[in-house]
């Protein structure tokens, strides 16, 4: 029984990938970024399709902040209206 369910899911996923591979690849990239950068479900929903870019940006900002907090304030001030 379990094997039939797995075979059905594999066929379903293959069909979905054939219909729209860009959407599937984007969803996979988003999920990978969520796991890699340990994002919460709320952040994942907030970022949407930009999850990989947002997660990477947040990670880099945190890295810079650890090494030089004043530099982060300088960088972020450039983007304030």
Summed up:
The chain is mostly helical and 81 residues long. The chain has 5 helices and no strands.
Structural notes for this entry:
This protein has 81 residues and is an all-alpha fold. The chain has one domain. Helices cover 83% and strands 0% of the residues. The chain is built from five helices and no strands. Helix 1 packs across helix 2, helix 2 packs parallel to helix 4 and helix 4 crosses helix 5. The mean pLDDT is 93.
List the main descriptive attributes of the protein structure presented here:
single chain, 81 residues, mainly alpha, 83% helix, elongated
Q: Beta-sheet strand percentage?
A: under 5%
Largest sheet: none
Rg is 18 Å
Give the total of domains.
1
Give the class from helix and strand content and strand pairing: mainly alpha
- State the order of secondary-structure elements, H for helix, E for strand: HHHHH
List the helices and strands and how they pair.
Layout lengths: L1 H18 L1 H16 L4 H7 L3 H17 L1 H9 L4
């Amino acid at each position: 029984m379990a094997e039939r369910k797995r075979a059905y899911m594999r066929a379903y996923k293959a069909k979905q990938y054939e219909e729209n591979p860009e959407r599937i690849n984007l969803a996979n990239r988003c999920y990978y970024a969520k796991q890699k950068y340990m994002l919460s479900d709320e952040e994942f929903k907030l970022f949407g399709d930009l999850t990989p870019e947002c997660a990477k940006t947040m990670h880099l900002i945190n890295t810079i902040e650890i090494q030089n907090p004043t530099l982060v304030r300088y960088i972020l001030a450039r983007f304030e209206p």
